[in-house]
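dumping this here so i dont lose it
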């Protein structure tokens, strides 16, 4: 069967992170159905897992996706409101053919997305994404079945298996003994229920904030330190020993500390990494992406570990981790990846567990642990591409301005310049390009940012 309709996918963000767009402005029911039917065809009569965040468009997109899967003879394991890492873990644990997380992550509420998950819980590879798109472009969908054999079932038991798998990675008894008071801001998203439940399993007293999953996102959805300023008074009032803030699909994790308040998302990974490397073998390998802070090299050097840099994007980090047999990995956006957990991707539960375990094992407060890391001098900016400007010509401007010692072009342009680095690349999730800069001092950062601005504006 072939559809004669041709879809204009130009307004959608299609990348290694799935497909996302604004509801009714590119990602409407017709487009969502096309992707649903294509995904259903790829499931080949097997079982698919569906999870979603709290966006108001989530339930009807879930119904549409479920219909497409059932009509093609597939079965559906439905999870409801769960974090992205839980959906990925359930695909792995249930031995499903694949799954979809319905969430536009840190994008505003009027966006939504399908994050496509393959067997064993990995996000679709570039090859699988290409196949998905070719099915849509060719209109080569299977005919709907009159008497499909598929069924719908709940995956609730598998959710608990995900939580248990994380608990196995830490000293639960020692964490319970500390009786930590923990503040949680789930931005009314997918972590609103699961994360407080997980903390209670660790014996923590939970102070829940923004854990009503009504999809309104009471603060900016991307959990950066700047976005969390409005939450700091609530954290301080809670008298908690540590706080955790999530994004809407709960795969990014940012910390609050009593002394500092909300800290940069770049601190999450090196703290979790410290816990993992403290019991890992010497010369272990760790993978982070090109846009992630030097802090991880600092932690790696303390334990004799090698830090390898991949392209940006969870799927790219995971691919490099598998290739190098890395013991840990992640991204500087607050994404912690532990390969021993069945989600094998950015997982807030993993980050929370490792950081609480570090506090319990060392007997140190989160502020003391942060003080033991070097100061962070980093800036992340986003720009629209100027009319008539290509990314290639922009890259040439940066090369000419900075005369870098080392260049990598495997993901946009990455330049190493005198103990500093600059990364320029198009976003996987928004119609912009990003410039991320890190230096060793505040003055160097200020000088570098002025030169960056000149390159963008000239």
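and the seq i came up w/
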């Amino acid at each position: 069967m072939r559809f004669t309709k041709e879809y204009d996918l130009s307004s959608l963000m299609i990348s290694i992170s799935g497909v996302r767009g604004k509801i009714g402005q590119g990602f409407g029911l017709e487009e969502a159905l096309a992707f649903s039917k294509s995904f259903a065809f790829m499931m080949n009569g097997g079982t698919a897992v569906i999870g979603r965040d709290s966006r108001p468009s989530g339930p009807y997109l879930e119904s549409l996706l479920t219909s497409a899967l059932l009509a093609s003879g597939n079965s559906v394991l439905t999870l409801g409101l769960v974090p992205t890492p839980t959906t990925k873990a359930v695909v792995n644990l249930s031995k499903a053919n694949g799954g979809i997380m319905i969430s536009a992550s840190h994008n505003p509420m009027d966006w939504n997305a399908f994050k496509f998950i393959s067997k064993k819980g990995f996000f679709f590879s570039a090859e699988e994404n290409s196949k998905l798109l070719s099915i849509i472009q060719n209109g080569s969908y299977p005919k709907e079945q009159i008497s499909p054999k598929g069924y719908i079932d709940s995956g609730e038991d598998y959710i608990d298996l995900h939580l248990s798998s994380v608990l196995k990675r830490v000293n639960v008894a020692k964490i319970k003994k500390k009786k930590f008071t923990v503040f949680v801001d789930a931005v009314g998203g997918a972590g609103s229920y699961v994360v407080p439940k997980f903390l209670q399993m660790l014996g923590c007293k939970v102070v829940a904030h923004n854990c009503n999953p009504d999809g309104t996102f009471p603060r900016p959805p991307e959990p950066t330190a700047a976005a969390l300023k409005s939450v700091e008074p609530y954290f301080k009032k809670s008298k908690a020993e540590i706080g955790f803030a999530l994004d809407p699909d709960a795969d990014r994790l940012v910390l609050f500390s009593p002394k500092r308040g909300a800290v940069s998302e770049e601190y999450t990974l090196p703290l979790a990494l410290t816990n993992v490397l403290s019991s890992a073998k010497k010369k272990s390998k760790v993978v982070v992406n090109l846009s992630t802070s030097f802090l991880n090299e600092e932690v790696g050097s303390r334990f004799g570990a090698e830090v390898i840099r991949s392209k940006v994007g969870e799927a790219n980090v995971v691919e490099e981790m598998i290739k190098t047999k890395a013991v840990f990995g992640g991204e500087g956006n607050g994404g912690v990846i532990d390969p021993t957990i069945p989600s094998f991707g950015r997982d807030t539960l993993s980050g929370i567990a490792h950081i609480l375990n570090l506090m319990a094992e060392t007997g140190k407060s989160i502020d003391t642990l942060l003080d033991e890391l070097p100061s962070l001098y980093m800036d992340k900016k986003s720009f629209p591409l100027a009319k008539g400007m290509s990314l290639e010509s922009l890259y040439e401007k940066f090369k000419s301005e900075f005369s870098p010692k080392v260049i990598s072009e495997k993901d946009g342009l990455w330049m190493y310049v005198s103990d500093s680095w600059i990364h320029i690349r198009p976003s996987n999730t928004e119609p912009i390009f990003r410039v991320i800069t890190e230096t060793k001092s505040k003055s160097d950062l200020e000088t570098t940012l002025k030169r960056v601005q000149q390159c963008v504006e000239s």
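The longest helix spans residues 442-457.
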